[in-house]
Specification:
- The protein is mostly beta strands.
- Helix content is 10%, strand content 54%.
- It contains 3 helices and 9 strands, in the order βββββαβββαβα.
- A hairpin with a 5-residue loop joins strand 7 (111-118) and strand 8 (124-129).
- The longest helix has 8 residues, at 85-92.
Length: 170
């Protein structure tokens, strides 16, 4: 296993999206679909970054295929590859589940704090990627006041589980 393919993260449930100043964050619109490919659930993502320049926002769009496998609580192996818009669209025509979310990325203390507001589910989560699952963290004050609890390792809060609407019980 290649350490570059490891995703180590802690996840938290939030009451609301923190009240960031626009210039403090990067914002993304993310469409994720989950498709069975050869008996394995595979994530396909359209990731749009909005860069306001003048009065017209410029959109930067990427398409990514990802195979994700749990290693331990909060630790996953992720094999990602860039795909074309056509491949993403083809996958959308297959039987799939999906989520749509707006992500706000706030950089603080040398870490990226990713706040996801889900469009089809009334829920807000926070993810922070770490070098080690036991790494000490201090949640920034602007985010901390919105934290309900940590949900790292709770399968019901995985994006895949959230994509299957009838299985989400909160």
């Amino acid at each position: 296993m290649n350490k570059d393919n490891l995703e180590i993260e802690r996840k938290f449930l939030l009451k609301n999206v923190p009240k960031f100043n626009r210039n403090e964050i990067d914002r993304f619109l993310i469409h994720q679909i989950y498709v069975d490919v050869d008996g394995r659930v595979t994530r396909f993502r359209m990731h749009e970054k909005f860069n306001p320049k003048g009065s017209e926002p410029e959109v930067e769009r990427h398409y990514i295929k990802c195979n994700k496998r749990p290693i331990s609580t909060g630790v996953f192996e992720e094999i990602e590859e860039e795909i074309t818009q056509e491949v993403f669209r083809d996958m959308c025509h297959k039987d799939h589940s999906y989520i749509i979310k707006t992500r706000s990325v706030y950089e603080h203390g040398g870490l990226k704090w990713e706040v996801d507001e889900y469009h089809d589910i009334k829920m807000v989560t926070l993810e922070v990627e770490l070098e080690d699952i036991n790494q000490e963290i201090t949640i920034p004050e602007i985010i901390e006041r919105e934290v309900i609890c940590e949900v790292t390792g709770q399968k019901v809060f995985s994006n895949y589980s959230l994509s299957i609407r009838d299985e989400v019980i909160i």
